[in-house]
Amino acid sequence: MKRSLYFVLRIAAAILLILNTGCWSSNEIEDVSVYVGLGLDVAQVSEFERGIEKQGASYPREKVLTATVQIVPPITGKGQKQGGSSSTPSEAYMNEKLTGDSIIQIFRQFSLRRDRPLIGHHLKVIVVSSELAKRYSLEQIFDFILRDNDIRPSCLVLVSHRNAFEALSTNEPGEVPALYLAGLVDNRYRSNKIIPPVTLIKLDSAMQSGSSFLLQNVVTAQNDHKFSGAGIFKGSTKKWVGELSQLDLEGLSWFSFDVKGGALKTYAPEGYSITYEPKNSKSKIIPKVEGNDISFHIKVSSEGRLIEDWSFPEIPSSGQYMRELEKQFEKEARKQIQQVLHKMQHVYRVDVGGFNKQLRIKYPKVWNKVKEDWDETFSNIPITYEIDMKITDFGSSTD
Amino acid sequence: MSGINNGPKDQITTSQAAVMVINYMLGAGILTLPRTMVEAAKTSDVWMSILISGVIILVAGWVIVKLCRRFQGKTVFQFMPEITGKWIAFIISMIIITYFITISAFEIRIMAEVTGFYLLEGTPAWAIVMTFMWVGLYLILGGINCIARLYEIILPITLVFFLIAILLSSRIFDVNHLRPLLGSGIKPVLQGIKPSLLSFTGYEIMLVTTAFMKNPKKANKAMMAGIVVPVIIYLITVIMVIGGMSINGVEKRTWPTLDLVRSFEVQGLFFERFESLLLVIWIMQIFSTFTVTHYAASLGWSQLFKKNVRPFIFAMLPVIYLIAMIPKDINEAFKLGDMFGNVSVYLFGGIPLILLLISILLKKGAKPN
Amino acid sequence: MSYLPNWSLLVQAFLLLIIPILLVLLSRVIRKSLKTSMDSHSKPEKEIGLTDVPISGTYDSDIASIRKAIGDQADVWIREMVIRGTEIRAALVYVDGLTDNDLIDTHLIAPLILRGVAEEHRTSFLDSPLSLSTYLMEQLIPVSEIKKVTGLQAFTEGILFGKTGLLVEGLPETLLIGSANGKSRNVEEPMSEALLRGPRTGFTERLSDNTGLLRRHGQNESLVLTKFEVGSRVKKSLVLAYMRDIVDPNLVDEVTLRIQNIDIDDPIESGYIEQLIEDNVLSPFQQLQNTERPDRVIAGLLEGRAAILLDGTPFALVLPVTFSMLLQSPEDYYERWIPGSFIRFLRFFAALLALLAPALYISFISFHPGLIPTKLALSIIETRQGVPFPSFIEAMIMEISIEILREAGIRLPKPIGPAMGIVGGLIIGDAAVNAGIVSPFLVIVVAVTAISSFTIPVYSAGITLRILRFTGMLCAAALGLFGVVMFFLLICSHLVRLKSFGVPYVSPIVPYGLSDWKDLFIRFPLKSMKKRPFMFNPKDKDRRN
Q1: Which residues of C touch B116 (CB under 8 A)?
Q2: What average pLDDT does this structure show over C131-159?
Q3: Do A16 and B263 touch (CB under 8 A)?
Q4: How does residue B344 score in pLDDT terms, banded at 50, 70 and 90?
Q5: Closest CA to C358 of C443, C455, C459, C454
Q6: Which of A62, A318, B29, B303 could serve as a FRET partner for A24 with CA atoms 20 to 30 Å apart?
Q7: ipTM confidence
């Protein structure tokens, strides 16, 4: 008896599973639009939208922002001809623009135009234009994105110097700009001008902690992109306040992030350019508290190789010559650091170099006292630094 | 057909008893634990709270085992009348049964919420829950031995998948998020103990399972192992989640553990995304928590009224379902869980101790050698 | 008040309860009908129209009654003669094709007609006919197997089973002489369980050959072969083999009981026996292991298991069996332990793949596009453009055609089998992709699944997985990944409840036991496998002394 009972139960469970096959949540992968990039701009009403609005097809909204979604692979056929799309059929992606004052509403508007609803599981890159970030706090802009269950917290966040839409466009056939941008971040081992990737989750925790932070900047010209510098966001407002240049980032990288690669160029006393490739760098920010006075000391030590030397006539790589070059490189790095510290403390008055972190770890009690107005406090704190560079080898040629 | 190796009664081995405790403890809590603890303590030192509450739970577990071993072969529902008399025992048994039912319902609700949010958006909750409960019913009808054996299959899968998912998150782990140690003193650590105690409910199942153990003398060992493994898992979880997302990031996420695994992608590996692994094992763990509480509640009824257990197993289905559907939204569900977590602290931290003291004083039950 | 459940919730709760209860009631009805049909199965008449009359000793009447009983059978031959040196008439009765004509000519007819009774004995028989039979047996007929029979029915039965009957005038009994020479196959390599390394012998259809193979395996006194007769209309011998000092006596008792309870007119193959003595008729999993390999049977016996051999089939049954054994092959032990373990591991993985791959495909494609790596997702989207079916239907089409192909492959004549396989597999698959019915990615999934299911060493276990695969696909189509997890839990729940002759089907995976795990996923070095599997409760626990 038992056996048949169990069997019947088992069959029943199976059958009911089948009967349950309403497949409520089922949605074939080719019937959805996968978007890998999202650009957020200040409102720019497109031709298409203007056209339909003339016919009265609009809904109440303020023109706050324009969202661009990059859909891959592009939907072929009728989707192509409908307005709003600015891509030509030869491209591997399709950019769609819509304007509104709520991102989720904009996304839902897409389903009025496309037979394939958007899914955000594969969103890789979000580009915010500095213009938009200047007007609205990132907390406002990203509120939906952080709540959504589709978008993964691993998504990369970038800021664009000009238009986010441009940053998500390219002339290169077959290339998907969003994936291309996401790939650039992996080049950190080759350049110290790229800051560690800021993903959504890191952005969230940075915003929650109230400290200022950087986002990698994308510069576009003629539909080609380059990472250059970083946008600065102030902790108190989460708005874009300014930019660090490439050179600033290089300086910042010496003490703020671990340098994994890059090229430090300076000029030999004779005026020829010489280049140092850092291989192994260590840095330390040491906070010091005496009474109410806080100060920081930065210690950088770097090992690397002399990779390029334009000196003419060639100077043999003797120990003494190396010492001399090391001094030159140290001087150059010092200059870079000084410059970025100046920008942080006196131009923008924000701490994006991780000084707060060190203070919090070493002197939690002091930190609790000053954390409310840290960016201001920081601008008046004396910072000293020492740099120690060592050329360990000269690449494959010995002279 | 009668089996050959079957004794007169279903029996479980020591390792099976331990596995039951582990599987019961690892339940809905693992996805939310980092947040509840950070919310309560506001410090990155909460992992210490886990260690402390682990020790507390060990003591509570020891009391329970001590109590149960005085009454060999009897579950709490059977031996309580001997200690307190019929009526008090009846009331306490009812409370315990209600507790089991509610925990079971709570787990189901959380499972339905998460599944509905991340895996099956748009599928009605009843479809998810009914399938789940029927599969559970099929298992429970097999008795405690089958339950224990299934758990033994689930546990290694859980541990392996869990370790893979959580250790891969070391890519975004930053030890600075966990520093400074005791930056704001010991007090927040103590505040974190309470929420972590709530997620350690589960050891109480030994009140029932000790009676089924082949070798009740080793109940202590089973309890130890049953508590230490979840403590380690919770510890790893909290450390990795806070280390990966910092307490600021954890605080605002509803399911921080899941978000941690969603916060990275491993290029080149076949999977790339590991939340599927985590969700799979998590559903399995909820399944085991649900089945064991469902079974314990049904067993409680049957022993209270000295009737066959099967009708009660069936009867519990709609009861659990209705209770699971009472909370209107997920916050109310969390509140329900917290409430019964609190109840459990008194119910299984306090009462067994009192019972043990009474039974020692009145010399009830056999003295374990 | 607002927390009171509303009516739709109450209906759901009611359904939640009532559906399993209805199923229970349904199962009771089914059980009853099953039982009554078993009871009504009446035993066939013992008599086959013959009344058992003793041999009278009067030659004419005896031969007449023999003719009446079996003389109308086309293949029964009766050779009459006179024993030389006497006036005694005799008749040899035998079935053509069952007996060895050479033996009858040289060892029966020749002594009787040519040599006859020697001069000095002739007179002594006239008064005591019985001593004639003793003389025949002891001095005249040079054949090893010879038996006296008094009843006519036993006589005719013996003849039909391949013996030669000798009826002698004046004797109130007859002689049955063993001369059986039914045609049988040579010992060949088993078709269904080919190995690269290992003995090339397989069982044949003849029971005596098979028991001989077991005996010949090595000298050993503890091998017990117990004979049973099964089948009510057609009697067949069945041998239960076990090691006297290893096997759990309870197991032998249980098996004996179950064999004695077998009630069927003719157990044609050991599959009949398997289905009649298994624990759970309704389970998709087999609870006895069938094998053609004597080495496998011996290895099983040494683990404390028992084996059943049936006359007329090369498939022996080994019992009890557990899930992990279905994925083990004798080669695991013949190879060194590292390759052995590797291959075994591979097989477990393949089994998992064969069971779940299409289900996972469906759930990822139709439900969770977010859980696939981005680049893979993009290429899947591109390849699936224009596929008109949802992934479930798509996968069903391919899976069913693969199953048809496989089934057809068995029937195809050997020379064209492989060719058809290629045609079916490659051309149809390619054409389906080109026609846009299925996506190329699915073809890979289905192909991998199909190949994986071939790695399972026990063919019938492979079929089980194939059936379950379809259930898994249904679950995935309904509830996505959640459905797959539920499916997995359902199978596990079933497995933990299943027992094979009292041994839990999931042993030795659970309960945890280090000793038995040495022969689970990893095959430990033989030197470390000192104990017999604990799960079979063997009498002699140590593999060595």
Answers
A1: none
A2: 82
A3: no
A4: confident
A5: C443
A6: B29
A7: 0.93
